[in-house]
Predict the 3D structure of the following.
Amino acid sequence: MKWILYISLCCIVSQYALAQTPKVDSLRRIILSSPNDSVRLKSILLLCEQISSIPPDTLYQYASRAKTLAQKSDNKQDNLWSEYYIASALSLKGNRDTAMQILNANYNAAQNLINNPKIGNYYSFLKGKFLMKDGKRIEAMQLFYKVLGKSESNKDTFTTIVAQTSIGWVYMELDQNREALNWFFKAIKQGSPHWFTKYSIVFSNIAATYNSIHKNDSAEIFINKALYYLSQTPNLVGRANALAIQSGIFSETGRIPLAEKSMNEALTIRRQIGDPFYIVSDIAELGNFYALHGPYQKGINLCKEGIEMATHFNIQSKLPILYNALANNYKASGDYLQYGKTIQRLLEIKDSTFTQKTSEALATLQAKYDVQKNENTILQQGFQLNQSRYRLFASLIFSIVIIASGFFLFRSYRRRQALKMELLQKEEKRIAENEVLLAREAERKRIAADLHDSLGAYASSIAVNVKQLEAQTVSIANRPIIEELKNNSQEVVSQLRNTIWALKKDALPLTAVSDRIKSFIQHLQKSYSTTSINVIENIEVDFILSPSHAYHLFRIAQEAINNALKHSAATEIIIIIKSMANLWEITISDDGAGIGESSVSGNGMINMRERSNEVECTIQWIQLNPSGTCVVISKANPELSLHL
């Protein structure tokens, strides 16, 4: 879905460039009141950073003022920033050729500004957008990968998020939704709420991708996240676009009143920004919505307003769409007289547009004809002087044209074939990676089966033999050895069962880990009759874990319970296992002697920390008052970070 198309075809009068956000207003006042050129320049550049909340004409005016001040003070860095915002404004206004010239003229200087790599990154992202709009997706992806490599090397989290989102955007344009989502989730995993307040478009992109494949529930979750982060910052364009995506989700799921509300809110924000082109575009969308769902009179009034604005600002490209929406509303309301008049007016506009374009085309053809006629006269004179020589010359020109045409056609064919080959290689790579994953799963299950059939059988046999040996008459000196063999054989069988339990599953829910912990406690309770062990389970969302994650989580809990039983002299142990929409947590509390410094640095706790890193969760040891220890194992936002 292409929700954001930065094209502006008209000049906006000053009244539409008034207040957009409190920050823009505040910066404007500083610019107007400050007598200091340096302060004024910094304030203008800060205002230009609000690119998503001001019209392109306003951005262009302020960026041009910044350029004048930067050149006056010979500030190369600020001059590069002003040129960047000028290019951005021209692109938004639809003058992309001039914008590209400015971008290319300053691109190398921006990249070579080592003390401020941010400028180079911004130039690269803008160039990538231009390449995408020109259909040069592979070149754009190469550029985004280059920025990603630099940002990861510099540990620049924000640029890494933007680069990963941009790569996902390329895949989204290629209709490779799975790869697109993969990159978007990588970006989310890199960031935090602080970053997403600045850059919420990744959530909007996820929502648009899910909606395009009709996963409306997922789409709604992520558009709500986008709107939440947008509510924390004055990004008016981002909010308007997110609301447009949300409206599409509501419409597809049949929630018409909510769809209307989102569309109206988006239109309100467009009016606040003050760009007539986008206001008229949203009015046309909302007019068509009313024609489908009503109320029709509301659609009629809205379309008339849009026609008046498009006429006033000479936005000719939107008039046919607006008249078509107006006609549909008249037809739906049963007013066939006005419907006929509107259709007639629509045809007149289309005829006028066609006539205008035809007249321009005829004038161009006439000019070409006159030029050709003069050239033919000259050629005719040449024929009269030397006809055979002219024929040879004409044949030569014709041959060159044929050869040149063939060359360009062949080069175009080679390019298409190279692109097809590249896409085919990527698909083969994806298939190969999937086959490797399947092979790993098969090998995991085979190992589990081998453990069960071979080692499991031997371990069980040893346990049986030890019991038989214990039943026989054994000397007092050998009884401790027999008891140790018995305990070790039982522990081998128990540990082997725990390992096979995790390995033989494709995935395990949190409730399965909880059940395993309960089973382990029942086994232990016989040996620790003086200690009360209670389990409290409150699982609202049964998160799915990979076999490895489930196994490590069980081992962490097992080690915590063993430590409480063996080292704390506790009389009561309470295990709480709970989960909700954005968190799962396991706590093991005891009323024992507490935890000492030697215990914190012990091998058991080191192993617990290493296992928590494998599960990508956090683990804490808390000293209770007056005595006791609480071990907390938790994971926040598991739906964003957990992948099987």
